[in-house]
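Lecture 7 notes: from sequence to structure.
We start with the chain below.
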Amino acid sequence: MADDKSKRGPADRSRISADEPYEVDYFAKKHGITQGQAREIIKKHGPSRMKCDVAAAALKK
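Predicted structure tokens for the same chain:
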């Protein structure tokens, strides 16, 4: 399903879409990880940005 760019707000900001390359790229650059690692984190922990941020931080330690 494509991202509806007209719908913005807290609900959209709290989720990461693995189907949108720009979101995966941003997440990977933000945490200093590869896009492959970012996709694996999103796949394992779901689209919750908070859960994925915690998992990415743990990956770097």
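Points to note: DSSP finds four helices and no strands in the chain. The longest helix spans residues 49-60.
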